[in-house]
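User: My collaborator sent over this chain with a note saying "see what the structure looks like." That's all I know about it. Can you take a look?
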Amino acid sequence: MRVAVSLVSLFILFNGGAIAQKINIETNYENGNGLLVYQNRSLNVIAVRPQLKNGDRLNIWFNFKVSGFRMDTLLTIIIPFERSYFAPDPIVIMNKDKWERIPAVNEGFYNVYRIQPLGDTMQVASGVPYTYDRLITYLEQSGLESFFLVSPLVMSELGRVVPVVRIGNDAIVEKKGSLLFTARQHAFEAPSSFFMEGLMRFFCSRGIEANYLRDHYDIFIVPMVDVDQVAAGGTGKDQLPVDFNRNWIQQPHWKAISAIMNLADSVNKALPLKFFLDIHSPFPVTNLSSHYYSNYSDGSEQYLRLQAFFNEFSQREGFNLPMVRNNRVTEEQRTIRSYMLDERCRETGAYRFNQLLIATTYEQSWQVKPDGTPYTTEQIFESAYNMGLSIYDFLVKTGDK
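Assistant: Without extra context I'll predict from the sequence alone. Here is the result:
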C-alpha cells in the first residue's frame, strides 16, 4: 500500500501537482500548428515545438491556443530549436484582446518567453497569422467594387480555390500594359499577405494615383499561392517534393505554378506585362528581418530601373533598402523572378516578357522596422500604400508608352 501511495504521489508531482489540472494547447483550427512536448502546471511552464506538415522540412511556423495555465504567476513558454531561425525572437501572443510581441531569452538549446496571462486562454504564433479564410473574406468584400473582379485561378491539390484578382477600368479601351503581383509562395510568410492586402487597398482607393493605374493598366494579383499549406499551418519553404518558389520550370509539379505561368502568358498577349512583384518575408528572427529586394547585373538597364524604383520607395519609407544579388538557380529549380526575366518564346527565341520594366522579389520585414521598432498591421498597410505610390511615380517618370 505504501508503494502504491508513493507511486501516485510521484505521478501527481510530475504532472504539475494535480491530475485533473493540466496546461493544454489546441491547434485544431485553420493555420494551427504546434505540438506540446512538456507541461508543468505547478511551475506554469510549457514546451512546444512546430510540427512538420504536408512535406515540410523546416519547422518554422507555429500557431496554437493555450489554456489551463495558472493566472497567478508568469506563464513560461519554451521553444526548442535546431537552428536559430526555427525559434523566432520575438513571438506574438494574443493576450486577452490584442497581439503582443514577446522577446525571447536564449537559454542554450531553447528560446524562452515569459508573459503574465490576462485571460484564461492565449494564442501564440510565430507572427500575426493571415489565414486563407481571412483572404477570402477580404476578397468577397472588395469584390463589390465594379473594377475589382475575383475569379478562381485553379483548384489546389487539396481542392481549395486559388483566387486571382483583376483590377482595372473596363471603360478605358486603350491601355499601356499590365501589372502582376504574387505572394505566399511560402506559406509561413504571413507578413507578405498583410502587405498584399495593403496593395489591394491602394489599388482600390480613390486617389489620383490609383485612378491613373486602373485607367492605364490591367492589374492582376494572385494573393495566396500555396493555399493548402497556409490552411494546414505548414511552413512551405523547402517542402517536398519541391518548393513552390523553386518550381518555375516547363512542367511544374504544383497546379498553382502552372496556372500563374498561363496567366502571365495570357496577360502579356492581351497587354504587355510591364511590372512584376513577388512578395515574401524573411525568416522570423529580428536580425534577419530587414527589408530587401533582388537586383540584377550591375550597370544593366534592368538594374538601373530597379534602383530608380526602390530609391523612390525608400524615400517614402524613410530608410534605404539593401539589395541581394540575383544568384541564378539551376534550370531544374528556377524562381519566379528568373522565369520572368529569362523565359524565351520557343517559336521566336525572343524573351517572352520583353517589355518588363521591373521584375523582382521584395521581402517585407517579418515584424520589425529597420530601426528595430515593431510594425503594427496598419503600418504594414501604410508601407504597401507607399509601394503603390512608388509604382505610380515610377511608371509616370519612365514615360511608359
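A starting point for your reply to your collaborator: The mean pLDDT is 86.
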